[in-house]
Structure formats: structure tokens, C-alpha cells
Design goal:
By secondary structure, the protein is an alpha/beta fold. The chain has four domains: 23-154, P-loop containing nucleotide triphosphate hydrolases (Rossmann fold); 160-241, Helicase, Ruva Protein, domain 3 (Orthogonal Bundle), CATH 1.10.8.60; 249-335, Up-down Bundle (Zinc Finger, Delta Prime, domain 3); 357-430, no CATH class. 52% of the residues lie in helices and 7% in strands. α5 (81-95) runs parallel beside α6 (113-125), α12 packs across α13 (228-238) and α14 runs parallel beside α16. The longest helix has 18 residues, at 198-215. The protein is globular and about 95 Å long. The N and C termini lie far apart (77 Å).
């Protein structure tokens, strides 16, 4: 009988030092921000934000080891305020005699406001160095008070070269894989199954090798050649065992948004159903619908943003299974709405102008003049109160260097044609 190790391959291959850590060179590569801090013995409180399986937990543990700090780990799914306080009390007692400990909280976005509040005092006092890991945008999921006391670092999904390096290291170092005499002849299916998730990649590799080894005749130890056909055969039926939101998590979210953008309500509700059946966080779905309502529909139907916002509120109040209904209503409504990306395009153009032109001065007539001195200096001089001119004065509101620049260009939907006509009636061809 083939002996299979108790710990998954991904756990067995967890890097033991920063030298073994793969990826995130923008953070811990030579001369990178975190690398310099660690070399100086410094470790700020931080939020590590990135997709699953990119090494957030490992990086936190290795940074604690590199700075000689005790490491405490909690999972936001299984821990409450009592657990947080116990760890903080323990860390503070240890801190009387040694350097302050690291408190690592996995999936910190799942902590309630009250649970996050319970961390504030210790972080502020410096009793612990907090490292939170999240797959969700911390701007939405971490309370502002905690966010302001932490640095946010973005971790990136692994590229092909990094994923191949992880597999080669496993083949060279893991004793069980070496016993199976494994060679990778084709990479595409194996890498595709990972979705950039290193943990998933290694666990899929183990699944495929274990399946192939079990099919070998008793007493034989022929080499196992991993190719696309072998991976497809074993992964098809078993992929969901590893992570129900793994490789297809972002693909399906993308398919939902692109179905909405393509005005295909059937496609939108199908991909929505896939996310619901996969156990996706309903707030994750609602946020993406909210973004789409503004990015893809915008001025063509402003009510879409109102409905999407109401949907987000409904999701927070209802939860599963009932919230699937307003999610479906919103997704099909957005898909059936006229489309415009004019607001999305306008802010992009304006941001590029800011980046290329720098901080252009505010024209004097638009400046605030709350004091006598500011008025004497010309702030607000020449400003025309539009309501004194029939609702429109015709004054320019851009910095002088940008006068004549067009950022907002209404699209061709009926509603936006009326916007264009209104602007043209005021400005002529300058903004119509």
C-alpha cells in the first residue's frame, strides 16, 4: 500500500526562511521596502492584501522570525474578542522581558467592527505588531482607525516562472515525491489549475501524483510523467476539494461583470449562480455589482447605481440564502440596462492629466476666501455666482494650463445624448 504523508504537500513545502520564499520581490526583493525594514530590525503593523495562496501567512511568520519576535496566530473565522485579548495579554506579559510579539490574524476582513476595535489599544500602545491578511480590499473591510495605524502591502498572484520554480523545488526536496519518481513533461494544465495560487498548485500536483501512483501495478515503481492529459483526468472530478473559490474565483467574477457589460442577463445570472453555489461571500459579489453599475452603466441609467447600493444594503441585512434574490435582481437589471463608461473614462483622463501636469494652482477666482487677508490677496476675485447669471456664467473652472481640455464626453445612449445637448446649449462645441 502506498504511504501518503499526513500533511498536504503545500504545508510540507512551506518556506523555512526568506531565502526560500518565492515571489513578492516588489516587497522583499533586494532593496525593496520590507526587506530594508527587516534588515534594520523593524517591523511595522501591516495588512497583507492579496489573492489566496500567494504566501501571506508564510511571509508573516518569516518576518517575525527574521526580527526575532514571538509569533501568535489567530484565524478570524474561529476566533473572537476573548481570543484576541488572551493573545494580547500573553504578548504584553512576554513583552516585559523581550521584544514585542507579532499577532497574525488570517482573514482579518471576517472580523466584525467590535473585534477589530479590540485590537486598537494594543496596536496603539505598541504591545503587539499586528499583521492582518486579507483577500478583500482593506479599504472596505478594515476599520479606518486600524487602517490608519497599519501599512497596507499588496501581494501579487504568482507568475509562470515562480509557479514552475515551486514545483521544481518540491520535486527536488520532498521525500514522498522523490519516492514516486515524478517528472513534469507538460506544464499548461498544471499551471492553469492553480490560478496563480501556489498552495493550490502544490496540492493539485500531489493529487495527480497520488492518483497516478495508485494506478501502478503492485510492486512496480515506474516513473510518473505529469502531462496535460494526466492532470485533466485527475483534476476534473476533484478540483473542488481544495478551494471552492480557487482558480476560478476571479475568472467567474470576471465572467459575471463581462456578461453585464455585454447586456446578457442570462450569462450574468448563470455566473452569479456559480458564485452563490460555490459559497462566495455575498458582499464580494455585491461590491462588484456596485462597481459595474457606475463603471459600465453610469450616466446611461443612473438608477442602476441606486439599485446596486440598495442591493449591497440588502445583502448585509439578509445574508444567504435570501440575499440571492436581490443579487439576481440587481445582476439582471444591470445587464438589461443601457451602457456607458463615460464617467469611468472621464476620471481616468483627469487622473492622467494630474499625473502628467502635477499640482497645477487653483485659479484665483475659484479659491476659498474665508478671511480678510485672503480676499486682499485676490482669493475669490472675479468669481461669478452662476445663479446670478440665470444658472450659467460661462466661467472656466480648469487650471489655465488645461483650459480647453475635454475629460467628460457623453456617450450615445438616449440619456447621455440629452446630457450632451444640454452642455452644448450652454457651452457650444467647447463641451457639447
Amino acid at each position: 500500500m502506498m504511504h501518503t504523508p499526513e500533511a498536504p504537500l503545500a504545508e510540507r513545502m512551506r518556506p523555512k526562511s526568506l531565502a526560500d520564499y518565492v515571489g513578492q520581490t516588489h516587497l522583499i526583493g533586494k532593496d525593496a521596502t520590507l526587506r530594508r525594514a527587516l534588515q534594520a530590525g523593524q517591523l511595522p503593523s501591516m495588512i497583507l492584501w492579496g489573492p489566496p495562496g500567494v504566501g501571506k501567512t508564510t511571509l508573516a511568520r518569516l518576518m517575525a522570525e527574521a526580527t526575532g519576535r514571538p509569533f501568535h496566530q489567530l484565524s478570524a473565522i474561529r476566533s473572537g474578542v476573548k481570543d484576541v485579548r488572551e493573545v494580547i495579554d500573553s504578548a504584553e506579559r512576554q513583552g516585559m522581558f523581550s521584544t514585542r510579539a507579532v499577532l497574525f490574524i488570517d482573514e482579518i476582513h471576517r472580523f466584525s467592527k467590535a473585534q477589530q476595535d479590540s485590537l486598537l489599544g494594543a496596536v496603539e500602545r505598541g504591545s503587539v505588531t499586528l499583521i492582518g491578511a486579507t483577500t478583500e480590499n482593506p479599504s472596505f473591510e478594515v476599520i479606518p482607525a486600524l487602517l490608519s495605524r497599519s501599512q497596507v502591502y499588496v501581494l501579487e498572484a504568482f507568475g509562470r516562472e515562480e509557479l514552475e520554480a515551486m514545483v521544481q523545488r518540491a520535486l527536488a526536496e520532498d521525500s514522498w515525491l522523490k519516492e514516486q519518481r515524478v517528472e513534469v513533461a507538460e506544464w499548461d494544465a498544471l499551471l492553469r489549475s492553480s490560478g496563480g495560487d501556489g498552495r493550490r498548485l502544490l496540492n493539485v500536483l500531489e493529487l495527480v501524483v497520488a492518483g497516478a501512483a495508485a494506478e501502478r501495478p503492485a510492486g512496480e515503481d515506474a516513473e510518473i510523467t505529469v502531462d496535460d492529459a494526466l492532470v485533466s483526468r485527475f483534476v476534473q472530478a476533484n478540483l473542488s476539494r481544495y478551494d471552492k473559490t480557487g482558480d476560478t474565483h476571479y475568472d467567474i467574477a470576471s465572467a459575471l461583470i463581462k456578461s453585464i457589460r455585454s447586456s446578457d442577463p442570462d450569462g450574468a445570472v448563470y455566473w452569479l449562480a456559480r458564485m452563490i453555489e460555490g459559497g462566495e461571500d455575498p458582499k464580494f459579489i455585491a461590491r462588484r455589482l456596485l462597481i459595474s453599475a457606475s463603471e459600465d452603466i453610469g450616466h446611461a441609467n443612473p438608477t442602476a447605481l441606486v439599485l446596486a447600493n440598495a442591493t449591497f444594503d440588502a445583502v448585509e441585512r439578509l445574508g444567504y440564502p435570501e440575499c440571492r434574490i436581490p443579487l439576481s435582481q440587481c445582476a439582471t437589471y444591470l445587464a438589461s440596462s443601457p451602457k456607458s463608461n463615460s464617467a469611468y473614462a472621464a476620471i481616468g483622463l483627469a487622473q492622467r492629466a494630474v499625473q502628467s501636469q502635477g499640482d497645477l494652482p487653483v485659479p484665483m477666482h475659484l479659491r476659498n476666501a474665508p478671511t480678510k487677508l485672503m480676499k486682499e490677496l485676490g482669493h475669490g476675485s472675479g468669481y461669478q455666482y452662476d445663479h446670478d447669471h440665470g444658472g450659467f456664467s460661462g466661467q472656466d473652472c480648469l487650471p489655465e494650463a488645461l483650459i480647453g481640455q475635454r475629460f467628460f464626453k457623453p456617450g450615445n445612449s438616449p440619456r447621455e445624448r440629452s446630457i450632451a445637448e444640454f452642455l452644448r446649449s450652454l457651452w457650444g462645441e467647447r463641451k457639447g
